[in-house]
């Protein structure tokens, strides 16, 4: 059974940092694009960051550029999201996702592009 499990969320003050991890089990995702999304209360799930299979291509939503960094360790079947200079508006449940298939250097930003989702981890940033 394929599972994506996020961890690393928590409560942090504005300006602080957190590092989220997404560990995959049940199969390897080393050849698959991965993404991070978030959903705040009362809002739709939104794209945060994406990374290609090799990690050579990344993309971020404008509001997190320069503050967040997505990376992956394919040997550990794990994707990371380093979040620095956190703001209260970053408060949300953060989800990782994986897309089926080998797509080379491509990354994907739409929720409908992804086939597997984790259960989410809460990030709360206090002002």
Walk me through this protein's architecture.
0% of the residues lie in helices and 46% in strands. It is mainly β. Strands 2, 4, 5, 6, 9, 10 and 11 form a 7-stranded mixed β-sheet that branches. Strand 5 (46-51) and strand 6 form a beta hairpin. The protein is globular and about 40 Å long. 32% of the residues are buried.
Search tags:
mainly beta; 46% strand; four-stranded antiparallel sheet; seven-stranded mixed sheet; 127 residues; globular; 11 strands
Task: Provide the gyration radius in Å.
Answer: 13 Å
Q: What is the count of helical runs? A: 0
Helical amount among residues, as a percent range?
A: under 10%
Q: In angstroms, what separates the terminal alpha carbons?
A: 40 Å
Global mean pLDDT: 96
Question: Topology as H/E string?
Answer: EEEEEEEEEEE
The count of β-strands is 11
